[in-house]
Amino acid sequence: MRISILGGGKGSPAGMCHRAAISIDRKHQIDSGIFSRNEIKNLDSFIEWKPECMNNFSDMKQLSSRKDIDCLSIITPTPDHFSNIIVAKDLYKNIICEKALCCSLDEALELRDKLKGKNLFVIYNYTGYPIVKIAKKIIGNNEIGNITEIHAKMPQRSFLKRVSLSSNEKNGPQSWRLSEGLIPNIDLDLGTHLHNLIEYVTGHKLINVIGNQRLSKNFHVKETSHYLFRTDRDAIGSMIHGKANLKEDNGLYLEVVGEKGTISWKQSYPEDLEITNEKGRQILTRSDFFSNDLINCERMKPGHPSGFIEALANYYNSIENFILHNQEKENVFGIETAIKGLAFFESANRSIRSNKWEVIDSH
């Protein structure tokens, strides 16, 4: 798959993750790109990205003149996604975009209307982990019975403590994150991961929500969201995410409770699934499973975690298999997935204002 890149320039926290993911299997080629609006930064970024074509393109139309390009991958800040996709839709048949797709449900619905005949793929990352695909299969095989509860959380500390020397949030959130719309950035940044993970792994659709939030005293944006929800299969659940918990760098955790057992996964232990039933508690790893479903998303034997970059790489591979061979449909996410997530968080924030349960209408 030949890919053009928009965004992800030098200093971008996501840029080098995407470059590594695209390159790891040597199946995809980074053909060309516009990595930054800043001309100097754009030129510096060529050194990091090393595209096949080193031409300095001035706009997307010029970039799209390259021959045999399979798709454009958009790695720009979330507020730019809508306008980027609007331009790209007339130039590329296949578009890949990072979560969150855009800043509001209205934008996503407008994109759906305007993208007829084009493929838009949305990348969330955590559903690319091999162990998460195993959890989905276990639940799909009814091994924990009918699901009664779902709990997901994603606490981080970056609003209170610098995460690392290289963190883009070492002096607080990036400037574009300090302006919020109907859906706060904390939901677009972290919550969309949890929504995607819940619906992918369980097969349930979230239909009602009520919530609460906390405002950051330092940055005057929402720093924590707490939501309760109900699903279309009569399960109840909770979702908690934020950037003001000193305990965790990235404490992503999913727990699915069934009538015959409970399954849980924590991202900081990416090889392990904990399953509890009437026989007791088990910690299972990838080596406990033998499945053709894992062949295409594993690169190293069990005990050597596939990791964040390889999970991201699985997205690019699944998108290639879909585009070229019409395979792996369940492992690619598009505008409908994004619309459901944005609808959830608009309803969740509406519930905070109304102080009552709100129906999630994804149109």
Topology:
Blueprint: E1 2-7, H1 15-23, E2 29-34, H2 39-49, H3 60-63, E3 71-75, H4 78-88, E4 94-98, H5 105-114, E5 119-123, H6 130-140, E6 147-155, H7 185-202, E7 206-215, E8 222-231, E9 236-242, E10 253-258, E11 262-266, E12 272-277, E13 280-285, H8 292-295, H9 307-325, H10 335-354, E14 358-359
Parallel strand pairs: 1-2, 1-3, 3-4, 4-5, 6-9
Antiparallel strand pairs: 6-10, 7-8, 7-14, 8-9, 10-11, 11-12, 12-13
Explain what this protein looks like in three dimensions.
There is one protein chain. By secondary structure, the protein is an alpha/beta fold. The chain has helices at 15-23, 39-49, 60-63, 78-88, 105-114, 130-140, 185-202, 292-295, 307-325, 335-354, and strands at residues 2-7, 29-34, 71-75, 94-98, 119-123, 147-155, 206-215, 222-231, 236-242, 253-258, 262-266, 272-277, 280-285, 358-359. The chain contains 10 helices and 14 strands. The protein has a 9-stranded mixed sheet with strand order 13-12-11-10-6-9-8-7-14. A 5-stranded parallel sheet has the order 2-1-3-4-5, with helices on both faces. Strand 11 and strand 12 (272-277) form a beta hairpin. Helix 1 packs across helix 9 (307-325), helix 5 packs antiparallel against helix 10 and helix 7 packs across helix 10 (335-354). The model has no long low-confidence stretch (mean pLDDT 92).
Keywords:
363 residues; alpha/beta; Rossmann fold; Dihydrodipicolinate Reductase, domain 2; 2 domains; nine-stranded mixed sheet; five-stranded parallel sheet
